[in-house]
Amino acid sequence: MIQVAPSLLSADFLNLAKDIEMINRSEADWLHYDVMDGSFVPNISFGFPVLSAVMQQLQKPLDAHFMVVHPERWIKECAKLGVRMFTVPNLHRTIQEIHEAGMMAGVALNPATPISVLEDVICDIDMVLIMTVNPGFGGQSFIASMVDKVARLKAMITAKGSKAWIECDGGVNLTTGKQLADAGVDILVAGSFVFKNANPQQAIIDMKAL
Ligand code: DX5
Ligand code: ZN
Q: Other CB atoms closer than 10 Å to residue 66's CB: what's the count?
């Protein structure tokens, strides 16, 4: 079954507690938390005071998506707060540091980055995040050519005997999610589709069944 990770970026910031409670009661597998620094991407989202408050109420594992220039600076802080998955935009030695801090390690690829950059690390990481929009904002349109990228990544993962999950993030709804499910995705991140939905809990259930 597909795992669903609603993205807090599309939640109601004046009522975060209400939206987190909805996530707690839902079938969601994760809460996706986008950290942006205004340098790596042209937007600033939220940081640690907000994360710390979210962690006090959240009953689901947290999937932290770092779109910042120096993600390695925040590994210890996140481990201390109880973050489960820590995803970074580039490789370095960060993967090892994330594992040493006791978290799962993800690597995010922008739409223009080829999957070949992962060939030598695919067995060392827990997840590959394929960005299906250019990172920075919720509510953008899905880039259709990413479906084939997911299929090729799935083939690489199988060929290398890796256990890495594939996560897709950006413009995911039931139509694009179905294409990704057929291509081999494991986790779908959905911001607007869940939080702007008249029935967010049903939206999550429908997505899990794709
Ligand atoms: C964008 C973020 C996404 C965003 C997705 O850079 O990484 O997680 O919240 O939002 P939707 O699902 O609305 O495209
Ligand atoms: Zn994200």
A: 25
- Which of 34, 63, 126, 186 is catalytic? The answer is 34
Residue 92 has pLDDT above 80, yes or no: no
Tell whether the torsion through CA atoms of 96, 99, 103 and 104 is positive or negative: positive
Distance 32 CA to ligand 1 centre (A): 9
Q: CA-to-CA distance for 81 and 147, rounded, in angstroms?
A: 34
Report the pocket of ligand 1 as residue ranges, CB < 6 Å: 7, 9-10, 32, 34, 65, 133, 135-140, 169-172, 189-193
- Placement of tokens 């220039």 in the chain: 69
What is the spatial distance between Cα 126 and Cα 207, in angstroms, rounded to a whole number? 22
H or E segment and range at residue 106: strand 104-109
Mean pLDDT, rounded, for 182-200: 98
Mutating to test ligand 1, I would choose from 12, 109, 137 the residue with most ligand atoms within 8 A of its C-beta, which is 137
Tell me the pLDDT tens digit for each residue of 10-60.
999 999 999 999 999 999 999 999 999 999 999 999 999 999 999 999 999
Q: What is the pLDDT of residue 90?
A: 78
Query: Over 80: is that where the pLDDT of 198 sits?
Result: yes
> Can you give the pTM of this predicted structure?
0.97
* Residues across the chain: 210
